[in-house]
């Protein structure tokens, strides 16, 4: 009897110990696996905070083309009479390519565009040069009077409407301060091994910036100071260019018109024009063609483009009706737009408009609607 | 969303009842906030609460742009003029919210906390996963549109909850929160309270099925919990001023007790509220309080240096 009990007890203990060992093993295995999994997850989250979601290749949030950047003016020089050159620095300045410009938001709130004329390879540094225009709209005067070394200036990220396209050869034409977007192009063209010439006109040598920099390029550069040599002979300079040569010109409006006329192939001419924000003129009636719908409407002087479009397409999205929320932005296929909003960047203005406030500059627009 | 006439009104007691006096005409406000002087820990001495609220800046730019994107597509399905006017006002308000929060992100980057690793993934979520997808026109496309409209209604339940909370979170004032950040949150919160019924009304108008409401609530709630805890963790771990920064549920509960974050019991209570068959957003929050804040908000009234540099005419 006693012996049986002992045996029984022994079997029970043995089974219990066995069960306990198995349980301990299982718990250890589970805990170990959990620890490993947690460590693996942590490691992934460190580099990918929302793992397992992938990231959008070109992030959108936080990269609005309208965002303001703040830069410090680290140097201010006068490379020519009436021209100041500002070097701006900040840790988060985006990269740029030759031909790009930035918006500078002046202390008074005026916004002006200036081409970047430094070296794109220098990260975190922008250089602009501004000529004082006496009869201008006050922007250049403000730059000359208020943007001093050590001051902070608000700018918007660079945009490029004057991109340097690859070509075997280039003919650059600059007039006065119009040298600014051309200057980094010369460096890029040289690096790319392209064949190029520069025709650089100005009032006098003293008023033409960057002459020391340009002297390094030797006889590729032709200087034409007006007080010594008169106006540049564009016909002579451009008639001899080889086919395939791209012509880049920045300068006063008459110079750009003359270049467009003198170039043997008008399709090869690239001009840098800054859109002047003229004060809003009185509203005039005009017509709008809705390309996809296939109708043409008249927008009377006292009606907005949006109201006229909605009469034909009632589900056209819109909201604030004052040009700041951007809901009614639409693609423009043809026609010059009189932009009256306070939202769009000039890049966006190149091919779109806000229907609620903007109108046609001439008398016709074609919309992708 | 269908050409069928609207279904007969459900039996009394199960239909969502709107509080008519809470309705107000909606319009977008052109706001501007200057971030120059806002410190990284804008709620002094409380990085966890600061960063938990900062998660809003990570989610809202992409999320609210998505709302606008979806709602633009719903416009043709709205057969009620009053609702259409509400949706039009809602779209503009959401577009401004997205832009205003987007402006905070470069500021965080300047302060040494680059949000891009997180926001690029949020961008993917809203642009790709929840985007338009390649669907055949007809039923599939309409189904996906309805599903997203229902998700937005569920998310808006939480934005209204948070809006109502921040309008009443006096503890933030007592602890010296940065005035510009507080104004951004309260302007946004007030507009969320002001338009709190629109997303739900739109959902009821185009679909209204209870099953879809419950299903999309579950999706939205799970997504919000996931995004929020990862966001708080991301900020705490990457904050350049913190050593071994951590985010935890315990900190969240304690911050809720202190009144610097919504309280956990209140958050749990909001779940059955949304799932009640008689729920209507107008039953919670006060339009009058929202309107009162909006009337005095510096950001909504041009009281600060305009962020666009004063180019506004």
TrEMBL record, chain B:
One of its GO terms (molecular function) is hydrolase activity. PANTHER family: METAL-DEPENDENT HYDROLASE. It comes from the Bacteria. It comes from Streptomyces bambusae. This is Metal-dependent hydrolase. Pfam families: Metal_hydrol (PF10118). Keywords: Hydrolase.
């Amino acid at each position: 009897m006693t012996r049986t009990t002992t045996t029984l007890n022994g079997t029970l203990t043995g089974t219990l110990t066995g069960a306990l060992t198995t349980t301990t093993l299982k718990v250890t295995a589970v805990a170990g696996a959990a620890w490993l999994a947690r460590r693996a997850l942590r490691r992934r989250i460190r580099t990918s905070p929302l793992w397992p979601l992938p990231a959008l290749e070109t992030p959108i949030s936080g990269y609005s083309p309208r965002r303001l950047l703040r830069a410090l003016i680290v140097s201010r020089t006068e490379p020519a009479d009436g021209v100041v050159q500002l070097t701006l620095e900040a840790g988060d300045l985006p990269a740029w390519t030759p031909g790009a410009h930035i918006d500078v938001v002046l202390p008074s709130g005026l916004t002006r565009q200036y081409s970047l004329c430094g070296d794109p390879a220098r990260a975190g540094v922008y250089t602009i040069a501004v000529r004082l225009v006496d009869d201008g709209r006050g922007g250049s005067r403000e730059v000359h009077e208020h943007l001093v070394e050590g001051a902070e200036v608000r700018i918007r990220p660079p945009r490029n409407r004057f991109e340097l396209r690859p070509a075997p050869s280039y003919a650059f034409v600059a007039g006065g301060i119009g040298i600014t977007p051309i200057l980094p192009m010369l460096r890029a063209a040289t690096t790319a091994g392209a064949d190029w010439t520069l025709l650089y006109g100005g009032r006098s040598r003293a008023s033409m910036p960057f002459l020391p920099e340009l002297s390094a390029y030797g006889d590729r550069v032709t200087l034409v100071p007006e007080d010594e040599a008169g106006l540049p002979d564009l016909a002579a300079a451009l008639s001899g260019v080889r086919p395939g040569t791209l012509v880049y010109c920045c300068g006063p409006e008459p110079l750009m018109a003359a270049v467009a006329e003198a170039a043997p192939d008008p399709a090869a001419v690239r001009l840098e024009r800054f859109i002047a924000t003229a004060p809003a003129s009185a509203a005039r009636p005009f017509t709008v063609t809705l390309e996809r719908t296939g109708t043409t409407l008249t927008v009377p002087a006292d009606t907005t483009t949006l109201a006229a479009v909605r009469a034909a397409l009632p589900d056209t999205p819109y909201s604030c009706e004052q040009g700041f929320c951007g809901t009614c932005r639409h693609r423009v296929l043809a026609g010059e737009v009189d932009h009256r909003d306070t939202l769009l960047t000039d890049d966006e203005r190149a091919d779109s408009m806000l229907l609620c406030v903007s109108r046609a500059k001439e008398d016709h627009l074609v919309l992708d609607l | 969303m269908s050409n069928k006439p609207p279904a007969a009104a459900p039996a009394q007691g199960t239909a969502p009842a709107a509080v008519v006096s809470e309705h107000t005409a909606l319009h977008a406000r052109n706001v501007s906030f200057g971030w120059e002087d806002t410190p990284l820990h804008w709620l002094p001495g409380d990085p966890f609460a600061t960063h938990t609220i900062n998660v809003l800046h990570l989610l809202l730019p992409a999320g609210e742009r998505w709302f606008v994107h979806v709602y633009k597509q719903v416009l043709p399905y709205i057969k009620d003029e009053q609702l259409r006017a509400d949706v039009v006002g809602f779209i503009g308000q959401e577009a401004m919210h997205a832009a205003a929060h987007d402006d905070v992100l470069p500021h965080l980057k300047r302060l040494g906390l680059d949000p891009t690793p997180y926001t690029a993934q949020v961008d993917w979520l809203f642009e790709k996963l929840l985007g338009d997808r390649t669907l055949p026109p007809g039923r599939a496309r309409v189904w996906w549109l309805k599903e997203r409209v229902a998700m937005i209604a569920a998310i808006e339940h939480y934005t209204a909850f948070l809006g109502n909370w921040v309008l009443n979170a006096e503890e933030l004032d007592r602890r010296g929160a940065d005035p510009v950040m507080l104004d951004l949150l309260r302007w946004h919160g007030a507009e969320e309270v002001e338009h709190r019924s629109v997303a739900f009304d739109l959902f009821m108008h185009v679909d209204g099925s209870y099953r879809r409401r419950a299903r999309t609530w579950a999706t939205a709630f799970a997504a919000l919990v996931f995004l929020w805890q990862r966001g708080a963790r991301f900020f705490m771990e990457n904050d350049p001023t913190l050593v071994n920064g951590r985010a935890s549920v315990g900190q969240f509960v304690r911050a809720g007790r202190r009144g610097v974050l919504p309280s956990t019991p209140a958050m749990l209570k909001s779940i059955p509220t949304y799932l009640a068959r008689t729920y209507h957003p107008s039953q919670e929050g006060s339009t009058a309080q929202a309107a009162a804040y909006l009337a005095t908000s510096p950001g909504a009234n041009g009281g600060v240096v305009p962020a666009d540099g004063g180019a506004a005419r």
